[in-house]
Amino acid sequence: MGKKVAGSGPCSRIPDNSAFKQQRLPAWSPSLTAETVLPFFYIIGLVCVLLGVALFLTVQKIQEIQVDYTTSGTCDACFEMRSNKMSASVKCRCSVDFSLKENFQEDVFLYYGLVNFHQNLRRYMDSRDDGQLVGRTTNLKNPSTYCEPFAYNNGTPIAPCGAIANSMFNDSFTLKYLPPTGGVVIVPFYRTGIAWYTDKNVKFRNPQIENELLPQVFQGTAQPFYWQKPVYELDPSDPNNNGFINEDFIVWMREAAFPSFKKLYGILNRQSKAIFEHGLPAGNYSVTISYNFPAQYFQGKKLVVLSTVSWFGGKNIFLPIAYIVTGGVILVVAVVLTVVYIKIGKKGLNMEE
Amino acid sequence: TSVEHTLCHSHTVGEPEQHVFGLWEETRAPEDLHYLSWEVRANDRRFHQRQQRRSFLCFEWGKYADNAVRSYKYTPLTFLPLSLYEQFQRIANVYFLLMVILQCVPAISTLPWYTTMLPLLTVLSVRGLKDLADDLVRPRPDFPLHRSFTSVRWRDVCVGDVLRLRKDQIVPADLLLLRTSEPHSLCYVETSDIDGETNLKFRQALGITHHELSSEPVEPTLLAFDACVWCEQPNSRLHSFKGVLEWKGVRHLLDTDHILLRGTVLRNTDIAYGLTLYTGADSKILQNCGRLSVKTTQMERILNRVVIGVRKIVLLLLMVSLLLAVGAGIFEAQVAPRFEVLSALGAGRSPAYKAFLTFWGYVILLSPAMPMSLYISFEVVHMIHSLFIGWDLDLYDAGSNTPAQAHSTALNEELGQVGYLLSDKTGTLTENRLLFRQCCIAGVLYGLSQRHTDTRTTQHTPLDLSWNPFSRGGLQFSDQRLVDKLRDQDSTEVREFFTVLALCHTVMAEWKDGTPVYQAASPDEEALVGAAREMGWVFLSRTRDSLTLSELSHIRHYQLLALLDFTSQRRRMSVVVRDPEGVLKLYCKGADIVILERLRQDCLYAQGCLRTLCVAVRSVSEELWEEWSRALAKAAMMTQCGAVLDTLYDSMERELTLLGVTAIEDRLQEGVPETIATLKQAGIKVWVLTGDKRETAVNIGYACRLLDPDTQLLQGEELRSSSLLKVTEKRRKHSTSALVITGPELVQYIPNYFSTILQRHWPCTNTRSNNQAFGEQPGWDGRFMALSKLCQSVLCCRMTPGQKAGVVQLVRKHTSSITMAIGDGANDVNMIKMLSCSTFCTKQVPLLWCMSGLRSTMASVHRSESQACESDLSTQIWAS
């Protein structure tokens, strides 16, 4: 360039000689050869396997017991009673005994589990009115069409509307510890603090009308068809846990992804009794169930689950296994590639030729 | 209608090529002329404006297009519909539109409708804005000219207007030539923008208009001109025109010789008057340009295939949706009835219907599997890439102050995938700035033999030409012997040799600083006349029938009797002159094979990479001249058919005496050998297509390192031997090989690609149908390609433009790789038109090889109408 003066001066159309325009900005363009790629295969494979093993050991330490109470213990009768629609409103209590072989350390979580219940059907999941649940008074009386056919009961708006709320799980549990010395100790559980913070404080709000109490606010709405009590009386023991911010309700409204799932029911209150200070001691227990939710229609099962947690969460073996399998596959591929490279690759054509 | 009625006589419609026209009344029976339905009334603006074509959005009505130069695609009104129309030609966009429509059906909508609308809108607006930006930066030229002898602009020209054109003006619309300022109403046009031929063509007005409209004062007569022209509907056939001029009750047949096409340039004619026949979009060149089409690159085609094609993403998606829908149906039938809640939600619809709805629901839900963002990414990458091409310092030519320019942003990545590179030689590999190097006069060789010496490094001792007042320098020739001989007075052959050089040409002289500067159609003429000037045989000026020379400062006038034009078929040109002493002479110069056929001498220069032209002379007797000129006049009166003239010319150009041979060097462009070496290293097959002789081509091949000294040269005859491929395969292991083949050989072996029809009708012929018409020789083309695949490079010499196009077709048919053609736009238009990916090289820009779309060379004026994509091909890119 620059042979002639024509290239300079104000009329010149010569491109800028800047680092950006001339593509001289620092850049890294790796060339992917066997030597550079194969180590990455080995490293990633090893990391995956090690991570998987570590997670596996962690998960193994978590203690969990599942008690199927659908028909076991004294619940047989209740199961039969719930099969009959006529007796749907008749109260039924039953209990199931079980024993812990070893101590459940630290925090213990009580879950209820359902098997074969399809909370993940799309139309079921759509059947709710988030506007109503967030406490908009207009939506309270005018539920969204998404709630159909669970929006109105003979012209009266249903609160909370929709299929999810309608089918809310309504069994309740009392766990009793039977110490070897005799007697019965009721295991105390926190029934609040079991929902997500955002759900409890943002997504679910009670409708507010000045100078009106909760029952007055809900005046003019109907309770869902299957419910035995209105939404503002869900928790008789704690007035602040009623209405749409009832935590059992919130937990239920967060739909499970699979047909078999467990939902949190309570967290062990370790402060109230010295015996539970370090978790649940090994020994015999009995769980008393207020049996309301019918399971025979969908050929399902109902469970009570007690579990400890680690930093990793509950007892879930899937992730460790996935890591181990992935890491193993990567290692096998790496070995195959190495063999191929040693046998053929070095002699093969490369870009230069 | 009465006029139309009188024109309707029964006769067969003529075969496509009818050259024999004259005054209709004299020569031909009345024809069925009902197809001449395009009516043009001279100087009747009101008649035509009533039928002016108007358009609103995409709808057009009316007959006559306006003449505005549309270098842009969109107007504010048409932008939206046109841009949407273009964008919905991409199947992915249509798919997403379908998705949005599906979303609007409440029964199956899974998400609110705007969630799929937003990405679609983004894609559409990004692309639309990019197109708009591309469109806005295009230049919007409009040129002043004279209609009814007041100055108007192009866009104001209307059918029926009589226009006055001046020298070097571009013809603004298809005109019927009425008269010119030259005798016999001749005029010269340069058609290089239309057909790539650089020689000037002459057009002649009808005798009737020439005579009737010549009376002074000219312009009022023309304004009163009230003829009516009936011609064909606008069409794309550049080389044919049929029409009738009806004036004063007499009808005159018109043909293509009376027509000035839009985009041609008026040369060597002071003033020409023309009647506007077709304007704007009706003009032949714009009809030829075809519709704008959305260009798709290989990459985009692959993407489209992957996304939409059978067994690809769409099908997968539908299959998955179907499976899921079947699953949903089973669930609805088996499981859902058990849940009171779920069966209540179903509201009594049958499971099959619910499954059907679910299917569409899943189609929508899975639509993100389509790689929509990939399309946007492509757009952005293309745009940035083309910016970088423009910014590249290595692609900037300081001499002409031009950076590289990517006209269409879409084809950039094709450059990196080129497998076959078809290159023209002249002007692309070589500079096309010719230098007079050597000559051989009467068996004596003047000038150094330059074989195997690099001309750039050889130091010349420049000739002392200070005795010559007309010298402008620049002669790279140093042989004092020749100058001495010239000034020595007694060497007649040498003197006559230079007389021929100074006389036998079509060069025009322009005076600058007291010395003549020559304007020539072809650079070799300029080189020869320039060399003669330096040697003292100065061509001073020409009129229509005389030439003035200064022979060593003696002014001599030669009477020009006839000029036997140069054509690419004849490959020679001659003049018949009467010198001041009254002697008739025919001077001829032309390609050596052509001339040598007509005498018996050999003096070959082709070995030195030099382009040779033979110069010969013939003394013509008065009687022969009389007879021949009468025949010529008769032929010119009766016909415009080239074949008749050719035979006549042929009969004159006989019994020549060779005066000598000139050798001109066509220098390689800077950096060409390095580029070719890099290309070869990158595994790209380089084909050079040239009109030169085999020897010249091979030598150029060596010079630009297309061929190595140890390269095995294969000849065209080897196609015949059956075991050839095996042998070549074996040889290939030891050394590289190259194929050298000539145009005539190709015609002989693979006639279906190189038929003469193709050459004549390249713009509008569907060659595929021609192939069937000609006796195909199956296998030969395949064999040729198989052979050429084994070769590192292929040299095709003695190719005509039509054959070049044939080669391109052949390569494209037999390979799947991207083919790129490079040419400087002169005789390579055919070749470049055959390709979607081609490179257009601006003249005299060394190593700035650029890439153009299909029609970039059709016309520089209409350039913007072609979506040309110029880009680069430098060593840098290929080295990466």
From TrEMBL, chain A:
One of its GO terms (cellular component) is plasma membrane. The chain crosses the membrane at residues 40-59, 317-342. It comes from the Eukaryota. InterPro entries: CDC50/LEM3_fam (IPR005045). GO terms for biological process: phospholipid translocation. Keywords: Membrane, Transmembrane, Transmembrane helix. It is found in: Membrane. Belongs to the CDC50/LEM3 family. This is Cell cycle control protein. It comes from Scleropages formosus.
UniProtKB/TrEMBL annotation, chain B:
The chain crosses the membrane at residues 94-114, 313-335, 355-378. Mg(2+) binds at D424, T426, D824, D828. Pfam families: Cation_ATPase, PhoLip_ATPase_N. Its cofactor is Mg(2+). It is found in: Membrane. It catalyses: ATP + H2O + phospholipidSide 1 = ADP + phosphate + phospholipidSide 2. GO terms for molecular function: ATP binding; ATP hydrolysis activity; ATPase-coupled intramembrane lipid transporter activity; magnesium ion binding. Its EC number is 7.6.2.1. It is a multi-pass membrane protein. Its main location: membrane. This is Phospholipid-transporting ATPase.
